[in-house]
Design brief:
This protein is α/β, with parallel strands linked by helices and about 450 residues long. It has twelve helices and 20 strands. Strands 2-1-6-8-10-12-14-16-18-20 form a ten-stranded mixed β-sheet, covered by helices on one side. Strands 3-4-5-7-9-11-13-15-17-19 form a ten-stranded mixed β-sheet. The longest helix has 17 residues.
Length: about 450
């Protein structure tokens, strides 16, 4: 891609990139993935990159992060060193089924598709599209908003690989499935990949996603994840974002819930230069329950923007949403959350809360919680706060001999732990608590066993 001094509009440049490399993009890719590309690039040609005139992207400027010189690879790039020797983080030491994605391509030393002892299938999306075409075809690109979001359409056109997780009917996968997305390159890179997670009727699973940068180059990731939770199924989806200041991460997660399903999401944005998260959940079966939690810690000139949409499409469903953030230095943040209760969705219970702490006068937070209700027999509420640490609580702690800095850290930790405590995996919860504590103390947010100084 050309740099920002070029006269070619970024939209046209991306379309030309697609057209000039179409053979490379489709070569070796299954028809299940290829059949959506042409329509998607047409949508992108019409939509382009989102601007701040789009209410959904009101608080984030997307085009400037694309106006850099990025390389784009259409096949896995050979790495001349052992990733395992370089990436030594405490998180992979959890008792999990571990999956690695390097620069958008599934990384495997053996098979690209693995059937776990429980019967669950985990592996490369590109390979799954070949081995299980009907299974992937039934769900792939069913939720993605290609017609209304240019970034999603761009991903659909370009994405070649990612992770596929399939939990068959009534299977309970007791061990968490952990996806580690690694960015490592000796040049700036644009990465686009796709994830598909299917939890069938009566099944249960825990999925943990970790985003890391392992080299100091500039990275731009544009990622789409589609999640299907069947009747009476249960899924906990935890996403931890821990990238350096020259990274830009754009995520789009879509979840569709059937009758009596349970979905818990916990989005932890611990570090990153520019982070934009879109999360859309549709409660499509009666008795469905969605619990959405989010935490973002920003400092320096970092920017984190969360957009959420919960669609109560049928009666007797519940949702609870809690997002919290702490902003320091000249950091900026945004929360734009909307709950839709449709006309027939009687007996809905929906609650939304966004709370923020500003540690300096230069930090800025924009928050816009919304309710759009067309049913009359519902219990719904929403609210938002933006403020400073409680002066009375701080005085109380200092009066009992606690130093001012330590008192502030304790108050901040208590503030954010309300989000972290909802992670059901005990070992992970303790590890995240430790990372959050170090982050609040101004220490490097990288895992302490990782030798890469990339923050």
């Amino acid at each position: 891609m050309s740099d920002k001094t070029t006269a070619i509009p970024i939209r046209d440049e991306l379309v030309n990139l697609y057209l000039n490399n179409l053979d490379l993009i489709t070569e070796g890719s299954a028809e299940v993935l290829n059949q959506h590309r042409q329509e998607a690039i047409q949508h992108f040609k019409l939509l382009g990159l989102p601007t701040q005139k789009n209410e959904k992207y009101k608080y984030s400027r997307i085009e400037p992060i694309f106006a850099h010189n990025y390389e784009k690879y259409f096949a896995p790039k050979r790495i001349a060193f052992n990733v395992d020797d370089i990436f030594r983080c405490d998180i992979p030491e959890l008792d999990t089924h571990l999956v690695l994605v390097l620069n958008g391509f599934f990384l495997s030393k053996a098979e690209k598709i693995t059937t776990l002892p429980s019967g669950a299938i985990v592996g490369s999306l590109a390979e799954a599209a070949k081995q299980f075409p009907e299974l992937v075809k039934a769900r792939y690109n069913r939720l993605a908003e290609n017609q209304t979001d240019g970034l999603v359409a761009l991903n659909t056109a370009f994405a070649q690989d990612g992770v596929f997780i399939y939990i068959p009917r009534n299977v309970v996968e007791s061990k968490p499935i952990q996806i580690i997305n690694l960015l490592m390159s000796d040049e700036n890179q644009l990465v686009q990949y796709r994830n598909l997670i299917v939890v069938e009727e009566g099944a249960q699973a825990n999925v943990l996603v970790c985003d890391h940068t392992l080299s100091p180059k500039r990275f731009l990731s544009n990622v789409v994840t589609e999640i299907f939770v069947g009747n009476n199924a249960k899924l906990e989806f935890v996403k931890m974002q821990n990238e350096h200041n020259d990274s830009a991460l754009l995520t789009h997660t879509y979840a569709h819930q059937q009758r009596d399903s349970r979905l818990t999401t916990n989005l932890l944005s611990l570090h990153g230069g520019f982070i934009r998260n879109n999360l859309s959940v549709t409660l499509a079966g009666e008795g469905a329950d969605a619990q959405l939690y989010g935490l973002y810690l920003t400092d320096r000139t970092q920017h984190t923007d969360n957009f959420t949409f919960i669609d109560h499409a049928v009666p007797n469903c519940t949702s609870n949403e809690l997002y919290k953030g702490i902003l320091d230095d000249q950091a900026t943040g945004a929360f734009n959350g909307k709950i839709m209760v449709r006309r027939n969705a009687q007996k809905t219970q929906a609650y939304q809360s966004n709370n923020n702490l500003l540690l300096t006068a230069d930090a800025r937070m924009s928050t816009k919680p919304q309710l759009e209700i067309y049913a009359d027999d519902v219990k719904c509420s929403h609210g938002a706060t933006v403020g400073q640490l409680d002066a009375d609580a701080l005085f109380y702690m200092r009066a009992r001999g606690i130093a001012e800095r330590e008192a502030k850290l304790l108050l901040m930790f208590g503030f954010v732990h309300e989000v972290v405590k909802h992670i059901s995996i005990h070992t992970l919860r303790e590890r995240i608590d430790d990372m959050v504590n170090k982050r609040l103390r101004g220490e490097l947010s990288r895992c302490h066993n990782c030798p890469m100084h990339c923050c």
